[in-house]
Design brief:
Elements (H helix, E strand, L loop, with lengths): L1 H24 L6 H17 L4 H7 L11 H49 L1 E5 L2 E6 L7 E3 L2 E5 H20 L2 H14 L4 H24 L4 H11 L10 E2 L5 H8 L15 H12 L2 H11 L7 E4 L2 E4 L2 H4 L3 H5 L16 H11 L4 H5 L4 E9 L5 E8 L3 H12 L7 E3 L2 E3 L1 E9 L3
Parallel strand pairs: 2-4
Antiparallel strand pairs: 1-2, 3-4, 3-5, 6-7, 8-9, 8-12, 10-11
């Protein structure tokens, strides 16, 4: 889930950049067909670009040589990580709760939509099915292959409304809304996702209005119809309601000539906008946040001693002078200890490190956290990466841990026990 949250943040940057560019130069132009394509292009870029290997490489990884880090420096990093783990996990849980809430809302809207369709009178007509509702306050709407409207609207203005809703169905607007709702669930915290959804709905109505006028409807009479239906209840999600968009803007668009071809070149601004978003994603501070988010645990790491699970901070999992002094009291409980203590362990790690050539070439650095087991005989086993930087650095960190000499085993109630430990391996390039 933390990887999804990191992807959501990265994708949201691209979505925001695209929306700002669109709103700045393109939203006021009377070109609904092109504007719809541009909005869908922004969605596509926001979804796909963060998944590209080159971008993921830059945004989610750092750069490395373990260049003489003093034990106290490394320990300071661990303290900082431990002090923030709890609130980062809380934020992740809040994000997950938000995603779940939006998804439940969408599912609820879907169930309600099916109930409305099933409860109406069905009239099959060509490629669509007309659903007539008796005494319903709902404004006419369309979804998938259904056109839904109250019987009163059908009797008063049926042809114009059907032409309008047919345009929605023919152009596949319901699929756009489904995608927009999914993006809103993924990025519910991002204003750009909701603003993009609203812009897309507006464009849908402009396109449908244009289809009605091109079919020969009287513009004035059609505008009066829209004014009459402006007060009806809107379907909240998934479907295209007749009265969803701002009425004044829709009427203005009907009375405005289409945008000239030369002004459509403004659409090219989306390219620089995406490049700007890419630059933001590659800013070290932003990349660091994305990396931290992708590695946030849903629960704190723990150390296993004598079959009991007890919470341990990263600092306490690193051998300390207090743990070393307890060696004289084998009857007590203590964590395993590297031979010679923590300073000897840091020297060993620095000496053993062989910086991977591909990581150097790619300028990758960061902190790899490796979890492993110290057995009752003190031997290290089962090294596993719990915080990743990149494949080559992860592999090197595991190799260093695997090559460690036998530790002094941990004790519980005077007996040697297998313990799970967590240590960081810091990579840094000059």
């Amino acid at each position: 889930m933390s990887n999804i949250a990191a992807y959501s943040l990265s994708s949201g940057i691209f979505l925001l950049a695209g929306y700002l560019a669109y709103k700045w130069l393109l939203s006021t132009e009377n070109q609904p067909g092109l504007n719809r394509i541009l909005l869908l292009t922004i969605y596509f870029a926001a979804i796909v670009l963060p998944l590209l290997p080159a971008i993921d490489l830059v945004a989610h990884h750092g750069v490395g040589q373990m260049a003489g880090i003093a034990p106290e420096q490394l320990q300071g990093h661990i303290i900082e990580a431990d002090s923030t783990t709890r609130w980062k996990s809380a934020i992740l849980w809040i994000y997950m709760a938000g995603v779940a809430a939006i998804l439940l809302f969408i599912i609820g809207a879907f169930i309600r939509l099916l109930g409305i369709i099933r409860g109406g009178r069905h009239i099959k007509s060509g490629s669509y099915t007309l659903i007539l509702l008796a005494d319903s306050p709902l404004a006419p709407f369309s979804w998938l292959r259904y056109i839904v409207m109250p019987l009163k609207d059908y009797n008063e203005s049926g042809p114009a409304i059907i032409t309008h809703e047919q345009a929605h169905l023919r152009l596949g607007h319901w699929a756009d809304l489904l995608m927009a709702d999914a993006i809103c669930a993924l990025m519910w915290y991002n204003p750009a996702s909701w603003l993009m959804r609203r812009e897309l709905r507006n464009i849908h109505e402009y396109q449908a209005d244009r289809a009605v006028l091109r079919a020969g409807a009287d513009a004035r009479q059609y505008q009066i119809l829209l004014i009459k239906k402006a007060a009806g209840q809107r379907f909240p999600s998934l479907a295209n309601s007749l009265n969803h968009s701002k009425l004044k803007k829709r009427i203005t668009m009907m009375c405005t000539n289409s945008t000239r071809g030369a002004r459509r070149l403004r659409a090219l601004v989306l390219g620089p906008a995406m490049l700007a978003a890419l630059a933001v994603v590659n800013i070290p501070a932003v990349a660091s946040v994305l990396t931290d988010v992708s590695n946030v645990p849903l629960s704190e790491p723990s150390a296993v001693i004598s079959g009991k699970v007890t919470k341990k901070s990263p600092v306490s999992q690193t051998p300390t002078p207090q743990a070393q002094s307890s060696e004289a009291d084998p009857a007590g409980d203590r964590l395993p200890m590297f031979p010679g203590g923590e300073e000897a362990m840091f020297r060993f790690m620095i000496t053993e490190l062989e910086y991977p050539a591909e990581a150097k070439e790619a300028r990758q650095q960061g902190r790899v956290e490796v979890q492993f087991t110290v057995g009752t005989d003190g031997k290290v086993s089962n090294p596993t990466v719990v915080r990743s930087v990149c494949e080559s650095l992860d592999r090197e960190a595991v190799r260093i841990v695997s090559s460690m000499p036998a530790w002094t085993p941990g004790y519980s109630d005077g007996k040697a026990v297998a313990c799970t430990m967590l240590i960081p391996v810091q990579f840094k390039l000059d």
